[in-house]
Write a structure and sequence with these properties.
The protein starts with 10 loop residues before the first helix and ends with a strand. The protein contains 4 helices and 10 strands. The chain has 188 residues and is α+β, with helices and mostly antiparallel strands. α1 crosses α3 and α3 runs antiparallel to α4. The relative contact order is 0.19. β3 and β4 form a beta hairpin. It is 28% helix and 32% strand.
Length: 188
């Protein structure tokens, strides 16, 4: 059996109250932080598959080997898991309401992610492609702007920097961490 942890609630209740319903009721939202192992594109696509839908859109965020000309060795993610998963479920509910999608899966790694490894996978199913594509794009933007997940870029020269999300810039976020700019840590 798959170790999937899913939570359910009516989309409006989740989006408005942020409350969780029992896992056995869920058939449309998979929101999971993964600490060990790799993310599975097949798992996400399999979860959102729906015979009433003609489209599945996916996004995979992977570790690149350089940033601003500096060789990257790996990414390191930290998260406040209960809050992150709750916010991911809230985003799925909002996407379901706004884009008329059927099912959503949002999976994100924590810990070390090597070059080429997937850090985030989003999958969305909908009756038509535009809704699935729009919801997928909206979900990654909102995930980066609102979910408490922090990224550190570790460089091949031994240095590292916490990265600020471009989506956080100018929001007054107190997180201080994310993707984009960042505070450099000395090489060890």
């Amino acid at each position: 059996p798959s170790p999937l942890r899913t939570m359910a609630a009516s989309p409006s209740a989740t989006a408005q109250a942020g409350e969780e319903a029992p896992a056995e009721e869920n058939t449309w939202c998979l929101a999971k932080i993964v600490a060990d192992g790799v993310l599975s594109h097949d798992e996400a696509v399999g979860f959102v598959g729906d015979p009433a839908c003609g489209a599945i859109a996916t996004f995979l965020g992977v570790t690149r080997n350089e940033f601003d000309g500096r060789p990257v060795a790996r990414l390191e993610y930290e998260a406040y898991v209960p809050m992150a998963e709750r916010e991911m479920r809230r985003l799925c509910a909002a996407a379901r309401d706004a884009f008329e999608v059927s099912k959503c899966a949002v999976l994100h790694r924590v810990g070390e992610v090597p070059v080429g490894g997937a850090s985030v996978i989003i999958a969305v199913s909908a009756p038509h492609r535009k809704a699935a594509l729009d919801a997928c794009a909206w979900l990654i933007d909102q995930l980066k702007a609102t979910v408490p997940i922090w990224k550190k870029e570790a460089y091949s020269d031994g240095g590292a920097a916490w990265k600020e999300n471009a989506e956080w810039a100018g929001t007054g976020s107190a997180s201080g961490r994310g993707e984009g700019g960042g505070a450099e840590e000395p090489s060890s």
